[in-house]
Design a protein that fits this description.
Layout lengths: L8 H10 L19 H17 L9 E4 H4 L9 E5 L3 H13 L4 E4 L13 H6 L4 E2 L2 H13 L6 H21 L3 H5 L10 H13 L8 H23 L8 H11 L4 H27 L2 H8 L6 H10 L3 H14 L9 H12 L5 H9 L2 H5 L20 H17 L16 H13 L12 H16 L3 H13 L2 H8 L5 H9 L4 H18 L6 H15 L1 H16 L7 H5 L1 H6 L2 H13 L7 E4 L5 E7 L6 H11 L3 E10 L3 E9 L4 H9 L15 E7 L3 E9 L4 H11 L4 E9 L2 E9 L4 H11 L4
Parallel strand pairs: 2-3
Antiparallel strand pairs: 1-2, 1-4, 5-6, 6-8, 7-8, 7-11, 9-10, 10-12, 11-12
Helix pairs in contact: 7-9, 9-10, 9-12, 10-12, 11-12, 14-15, 16-21, 17-19, 19-20, 19-25, 20-22, 20-25, 21-22, 23-26, 25-26, 27-30, 31-33
Length: 771
């Protein structure tokens, strides 16, 4: 953590005037270091430190050697103050005590061995000596002697130690700052591409300068962002913050830097962090590479687009990426975008293939070859979505999506419960998925009232036509781009078992191979947006939605919809849900629709119908054009009087159709005889027996209807008794269901809410002596 500032309150106010905003809004393409007040402010801070230290008479006697930020003229108000003392130990202790009494935290050390300052110290302490600044002539002499003994610290042995230390530290730091927060609120000092990366890149370059042949551009970029980032850090500290560019300060800081919006500011900053990360990586790799390898890369020649892809395929290292960068404008000038379209499309086809390596894909993005292959992506470089969910910049998210599709292709287990989809995808499905990953978010950030999915369709159609890709592929990728968010909304924000949700998805074309592709893409998109947001729970919800959409229940629903529209049946599609799964398992949807249409067209009530399905189950349908109180009780009583045991029931009153009730019964009677008896109403009324219910309870209630459950052991006349009790109490039954499992029955009635629920329950419980 950064220390408390060494400035007093008066100096703090002066500092606000010394540190000025850039003379012009920073632009990474026009690198003007003089625009920043960074160096002047650092020197001003250094002068304030000198005043503090020189006030102690022991200061010069300690023979201080300035290290770190102070030595490099990179001071910020909360910088660590690093000093090596090579004077008398007692005087050093006395000086340090005096400084600490003033509240100033000083990071200091004395050589463990005065004859060898590198003994028992970390590699970075040795590295710091390269930029060390002695305060006194004697300190300068001692520092020079140490450098002379070790051959100026550039001896091959020390260089390798320092290089390894830098690589290890960078690797550990990348793990530490590889988090959601760092992308939304970057650490300007220690995060990827921050000042620490930048500083190390410049130091390694100085150590291995003879290995670089054309470092000018890279050094220019690093020196520019050194001033840019340090200016930000200094302002952050003056505003009372540390090194983290929090969301709250981004607005004010962006305005101070001259940007129109904080999004413009953060986009420019992220581009800078990406550049610094790349070029500092490149410098480290050059330092580590052999002369033979560097010479080979230097001699690479590119004459066409395909040569660039081929080179990255053979060697995807940062060294080759840098070489590719240098040749992009020559081989793919912006003016030739149209004429190179088909070749660019072919190159993308190769890179996007799920069988191509992850390393090649990443190298195409890091080399910025992707900017030439898909110019639309340039706009997304550094584009951050400030929603605490999107982990990466927009261009990095697209790259991550393209990487994820390769990962899950090679390792389906990464998908968890959703891995079963893998085997249902053809090679063409994987091809469509890969292109969809590249194009699904290309329209992000465009100023338009249209959703980015709609704009993305336009971009996809335009580019695919220029690439010469087939209409079938184009249509499928366009569909994926258009609908890439649909399944996540349905699975995580809606009820995956709701027929309305099924219908919404079916209307958008979510079925067959499209369903599988979209489900897999949803998982890929989540993992590429924020790996921490993908978990077992979401995988299960997606799986549940896919299974629901492929279930018989869903198929019956879709078949009913199709037939309802074809037959012009004047009832709502929700009726299919009310009919219940038992009836739908016993009768075909077509038979039900035909029968309902007949009832709808008839001006009078239809005669009872007896139906026997393939399983041998007997169902009886009653129909009355007009509903009346007690009609359900009459039907049930009639069946009971015939000695028919009711196993299941589907009871409804439908607009235009009327009373439409189906009962599954248990009987050994002849079907023809039963039909005749029912049609001729030749049934002698039989008293309903006394039955016993264990529980009568209210399932749900609203202003329109009550749902009441009668539970008890299976007995003759159970449904007839429940229906009669409701009829006797003057209750109007809207629908009913009979659930039978084993020896238990649950009769559920939906009735009009024309009386108080508790009053009705009390009456029913009293009737069956349940109080």
């Amino acid at each position: 953590m950064a220390q408390k500032s060494f400035l007093n309150s008066e100096q703090w106010e002066q500092a606000q005037e010394v540190l000025t905003p850039p003379l012009m809004t920073p632009d990474g393409d026009v690198r003007q270091v003089f625009c920043f007040s960074t160096e002047n402010f650092s020197n001003w801070l250094g002068a304030r430190l000198e005043e503090i230290f020189k006030s102690s008479k022991e200061w010069e006697d300690c023979h201080p050697i300035i290290l770190g930020s102070w030595a490099r003229e990179e001071l910020s108000p909360k910088s660590d103050i690093d000093v090596l003392f090579c004077g008398d130990e007692e005087k050093v202790k006395k000086f340090v005590d005096q400084v600490q009494e003033q509240g100033l935290k000083l990071r200091y050390r004395m050589p463990h061995n005065p004859e060898d300052w590198t003994e028992n110290v970390e590699a970075f302490d040795i590295l710091a000596l390269l930029k060390a600044r002695p305060w006194t002539p004697e300190g300068a002499k001692k520092l020079f002697e140490q450098q002379k003994k070790k051959s100026g610290l550039r001896k091959k042995h020390y260089r390798r130690i320092l290089l390894k230390a830098v690589k290890d530290e960078r690797k550990n730091r990348e793990k530490r700052f590889d988090s959601i927060t760092n992308y939304l609120e970057p650490n300007i000092k220690y995060g990827p591409g921050g000042l620490r990366d930048l500083e190390q890149g410049l130091q390694i370059y100085e150590l291995f300068a003879e290995k670089f042949t054309h470092p000018g551009h890279a050094l220019n970029v690093l020196q520019y962002y050194r001033s840019y980032f340090l200016n930000l850090r200094q302002k952050l500290h003056l505003e009372g913050h540390g090194d983290i560019l929090s969301n709250a300060i981004q607005f004010d800081l962006g305005k101070w830097m001259g940007f129109k919006t904080h999004k413009d500011f953060m986009r420019d900053l992220q581009r800078g962090l990406s550049r610094v990360h790349f070029y500092s990586d490149w410098i480290v790799d050059v330092a580590e590479a052999s002369e033979k390898e560097l010479k080979h890369i230097e001699n690479l020649e590119f004459k066409k687009i395909e040569d660039l892809i081929s080179a990255l395929h053979k060697n995807s290292s940062v060294l080759v990426q840098k070489k590719v960068r240098e040749n992009l404008d020559a081989l793919l000038p912006d003016k030739n975008v149209k004429t190179t379209a088909r070749r660019r499309g072919a190159a993308l086809e190769q890179v996007l293939s799920v069988k191509e390596t992850d390393e090649v894909l990443v190298s195409v993005f890091r080399s910025r070859l992707v900017d030439k292959l898909v110019p639309e992506i340039r706009r997304l470089v550094g584009y951050v979505q400030h929603d605490q969910y999107h982990r990466f910049t927009a261009d990095s998210h697209i790259m991550q999506a393209c990487r994820e599709v390769k990962r899950v292709y090679k390792k389906p287990s990464e998908l968890g419960p959703l891995k079963f989809i893998h085997k249902n995808l053809s090679p063409e499905d994987w091809r469509i998925l890969s292109w969809s990953c590249l194009y699904h978010d290309l329209a992000k950030g465009l100023e338009s009232s249209e959703h980015h999915s709609d704009l993305g369709v336009t971009i996809t159609e335009r580019d695919f036509k220029s690439y010469g890709l087939s209409k079938t592929l184009t249509d499928e990728v366009k569909w994926m781009v258009q609908n890439h968010l649909e399944l996540s909304q349905a699975a995580f924000r809606k009820n995956p078992k709701d027929p309305k949700v099924w219908q919404e998805l079916r209307q958008k074309g979510v079925e067959g191979s499209r369903l599988y592709r979209l489900a897999l893409f949803t998982a890929i998109d989540i993992r590429a947006t924020n790996p921490e947001a993908w978990n077992e729970w979401k995988a299960k919800l997606l799986k549940e939605l896919v299974i629901s959409l492929e279930s018989k229940k869903a198929q019956d629903y879709f078949d009913f919809q199709t037939l309802r529209l074809r037959k012009k049946l004047q009832i709502q599609s929700e009726v299919i849900e009310e009919l219940g799964p038992v009836l739908l398992d016993s009768l075909s949807v077509k038979e039900l629709v035909d029968d309902m249409k007949k009832a709808e067209l008839s001006e009078t009530s239809l005669k009872p119908r007896v139906y026997k399905n393939r399983k041998g189950e007997i169902w009886i349908r009653f129909h009355e054009k007009k509903d009346r109180q007690g009609i359900l009780s009459d039907y049930v009583g009639q069946l009971y009087s015939l000695g028919l045991g009711i196993r299941n029931a589907s009871i409804h009153t439908l607009a235009k159709v009327g009373v439409y009730d189906w009962f599954q019964v248990a009987t050994s009677k002849n079907i023809q005889t039963l039909t005749k008896v029912l049609e001729n109403a030749q049934v002698q009324s039989k008293p309903v027996p006394a039955v016993k219910f264990d529980v009568i309870q209210l399932v749900s209630a609203d202003e329109k209807e009550l749902v009441i459950s009668f539970k008890g052991p299976d007995q003759a006349g159970l449904l007839a008794s429940a229906a009669r009790s409701l009829s006797d109490l003057g209750v109007s039954v809207k629908s009913a269901r009979v659930h039978t499992w084993g020896r238990q029955v649950d009769d559920i009635f939906c009735v009009k809410a024309d009386r108080e629920p508790q009053e009705l329950l009390a009456s029913l419980r009293q009737r069956y002596q349940l109080d």
